[in-house]
Amino acid sequence: MSTTKFVISAKERPNIILIMTDDQGWFDAGFNGNKMIQTPNLDALAQQGVIFDRFYSASSVCSPTRASVMTGRNPNRMGIPSANTGHLKLEEITIAELLRKEGYATGHFGKWHLGTLTKKVKDANRGGKEKHFEHFTIPSMHGYDEFFCTESKVPTYDPMIYPTTFKEGESKKYGWTAVAKGERSEAYNTFYWVDNEQKASNDLSGDDTKLIVDQVIPFIHQSVSNKKPFFTTVWPHTPHLPVVTSEYYKNKYAHLSNKEQLYYGCITALDEQVGRLWQELKELGLAENTMIWFCSDNGPENGTPGSAGKFRARKRSLYEGGLRTPAFVVWKKELAGNQRLDFPAYTSDYMPTILNILNIEYPDNRPVDGMDIMPLIQHSSMQREKPMGFQFNNRISWVTHQYKLISEDAGKTFELYDLINDEKEQNNIIQNNSELAQHMKEDLLEWKKSVSHSLNGNDY
User: Structure pTM?
Assistant: First the structure.
């Protein structure tokens, strides 16, 4: 295995798949030690690559993290501080744009959540409302040849509908089983969009992740036919609320509560589709030279059986449980399997890492928050030198290889944690480490100035 900079010819360029689940907690996968949940395909795939014990989403909610994947930049730089706010601006440089210029076929499948997808009809949270027209931005405006996606959340089974009656232990707020034949149901009032057209709703029944993979596989086949490498973002909605699961998957957890049956069942359904996708790559002879990155967009939602495991807090928090996600990378041609690494990495690292692997120069000098982590993967004894900054609402955090400085009140007060020796964040050490805290605070404030500079349009 190479431990130097990659020299890849056009014929050897890897296919690239970025899979990102929605609200899947760090402990919601067997490869992170969960003995209850059934994720055999994810576990087997992770074992063939490198599992990250300390991988972070760039935000503790979905839209901002997705922006970081696309650009390698902190989402606050482009005005996407939270879900359903702002949009991915045309001035941003995306990974899809850069790879398409290099001859890659590009496709996006699943959730978008980086702007509205239509000006024609009401769709999801914002689409079709005149006041949100300024946020209209679809994947084909950002480097994608094709897309099959929703603006935001949909049920994880029969994604276009929801029932009007519920069984014992089920609720509209949490989730439900699939609508049985003859039961009453209503439109969920959102759509899948294929290019600029709505996908017929009668074609969209069954498990939502399967519907997504049903579109990914033909895209891969077409890329092979055209003799092009492919880049695709595959962003399932699972296990974001509303959690919906068929009786088949619920029955795999029949001994558990209804909530657990729904939640674990939809993740197992997703797991089977990841296995299906990997099997397709093997049958096409693409598995060796396809790079698959897997993660979640933030920690588990409150009120669900989702789990951050031993880590503190959940979604919307900048403590570890809100940001650490299950994650791995597989690239059999270049990376040895059966590895677990504990250096810190996050979703903003995807873009600079992939560009450096492909020897693609970033086009200008605007700030990029991520870094190339392939040297860290290849040399597990190395430490991360570039800190990671996080912002969400009034919460801010600055994370180095070992320490986390965090404020819950917009910088009025701070806490300091040694994440190597106290990963559960139980011991605030700021009083005995004032000099270190002050240095980190200065770096954090300098970074915040840079983010504000970008937000004011000075990068374009």
Answer: 0.96
